[in-house]
Specification:
- The protein is α/β, with parallel strands linked by helices and 379 residues long.
- It has 2 domains: 2-186 and 359-375, Rossmann fold, CATH 3.40.50; 198-356, Rossmann fold (3-Layer(aba) Sandwich).
- Helix content is 45%, strand content 15%.
- The chain contains 16 helices and 13 strands.
- The protein has helices at 11-26, 40-45, 58-63, 77-94, 96-105, 119-127, 142-154, 198-201, 224-236, 247-253, 267-270, 283-292, 303-315, 328-340, 342-356, 361-372, and strands at 2-6, 30-36, 50-54, 110-114, 131-134, 165-168, 182-184, 209-213, 240-244, 261-263, 276-279, 296-298, 318-320.
- The strands form 2 sheets. A 7-stranded parallel β-sheet has the order 3-2-1-4-5-6-7.
- The radius of gyration is 21 Å and the shape is globular.
- The relative contact order is 0.13.
Length: 379
């Protein structure tokens, strides 16, 4: 059968759905993945045929309104999520004409849309094929969906189909309530890869290891003093520090921080060697840490990242720093607390075991094949 994946936003949204796309390809099915132009490289690196359906990145829709005027993202978490839902809805609509053209040339038997890929149900309805919604992370979608449905209705799309199946990658204990038509699936960590060095997969000394990362975002120049002080403080406390950042950012920062491993670090490989991961609250980063059983110290800014972090903090596997905490010394102190408190590690390992017990992507292939049968697919 032919399966069209639709995703959008950041490379993390590609990494989240790539395991299922790969499982379908490994089962002999034809898979395309459609997304914004700037995601073509991550999709291709994941080994999936990539189709660009929009030249515009998510930032265009988050920071501007329909008329192209600059807007402020609400600071309130719930209103911020509704704003993000509206933004992703507009991004989905911006790609709809390209999706119509694509599906006219290459008609899918099944469409799998990322959690906030709101163009996916619309194109599935036009094609008359089943629609599967695939979660990207642990964020509750209710407020996002409310904003998206309002935006779509205001733009003339009043009937947004419900998914025939919802694939949930959130550990069950972090999901506040069961979701309709939900099917759990094991999270598989994914990111860009590179040639491995020994320090990436083994410990070089007995010091505790702390990894600092901002995910696919980079450490901004204005944050360099904070990063430098944090690295210096941790190093003074006999902690090994790794800094995961794009290579071009790392090159600029090397003269500003001490002698640490810095650059593009394959997080799925390095995470199991760490004692604490300090990050920005990204869902894929958080799930990768959970999968490795590593406690998380999270400095989230913005509604979506805060929402992605709250359940982790409530689980006891991590801590969400106060939004007003900008002190590197306080952050270092919190890292030391993690290192000295085994409860964080115990809860993080419990989440890792929970993730490992979920059905794999390969386990779901047969269910997706059966879902496409009513559409006339020959197996």
């Amino acid at each position: 059968m032919r399966v069209l994946f639709v995703t959008a936003g950041s490379p993390a949204t590609v990494f989240a759905v790539a395991p299922l796309a790969a499982a379908l390809r490994n089962a002999g099915h034809h898979v395309f993945m459609a997304a914004n132009e700037h995601l073509m490289t991550p999709i291709a690196e994941a080994g999936i045929p990539a189709i660009s359906v929009s030249p515009l990145p998510i930032q265009h829709f988050v920071w501007t309104d329909r008329a192209g005027n600059q807007v402020q993202v609400p600071q309130d978490v719930r209103e911020g999520l509704r704003h993000m839902g509206r933004s992703f809805a507009r991004m989905g609509l911006a790609a709809l004409d390209s999706l119509v053209e694509l599906t006219a040339d290459w008609r899918p038997d099944l469409i799998v849309g990322g959690g906030m890929s709101y163009g996916a149900p619309l194109i599935a309805a036009r094609c008359g094929v089943p629609y599967v919604r695939h979660a990207w992370d642990v964020v509750d979608l209710a407020d996002l969906d409310q904003g998206a449905v309002e935006e779509l209705a205001e733009l003339g799309h009043h009937d947004v189909p419900e998914p025939d199946l919802f694939i949930d990658i959130c550990p069950p204990s972090l999901r506040p309530a069961p979701l309709p038509r939900a099917r759990p699936m094991r999270w598989v960590a994914g990111n860009r890869q590179r040639q491995l060095q020994r320090w990436m997969y083994t410990r070089e000394d007995a010091r505790p290891r702390v990894l600092l990362t901002a995910g696919t975002r980079s450490f901004m120049p204005q944050n360099t003093p904070f990063l430098r002080t944090l690295v210096d403080t941790l190093s003074t406390l006999e902690v090994e520090v790794l800094v995961a950042a794009p290579d071009e950012t790392a090159e600029q920062l090397r003269g500003e921080v001490g002698d640490v491993h810095m650059g593009w670090i394959p997080l799925d490989v390095v995470a199991p060697t760490c004692d604490v991961i300090f990050h920005h609250g990204g869902g894929v980063t958080a799930l990768t840490a959970m999968n490795a059983g590593v406690p998380q110290l999270i400095a989230a800014k913005g509604a979506y990242l805060i929402a992605a972090s709250q359940s982790i903090a409530q689980s006891g596997a991590g801590r969400l720093l106060d939004a007003d905490t900008d002190s590197a010394e306080e952050t270092a102190k919190a890292c030391l607390e993690f290192l000295s408190n085994p409860d964080y590690r115990g809860r993080a390992r419990a989440l890792a075991e929970e993730i490992a017990g979920q059905p794999t992507a390969a386990d779901l292939v047969g269910e997706l094949e059966a879902l496409a049968v009513p559409a006339g697919v020959a197996q």
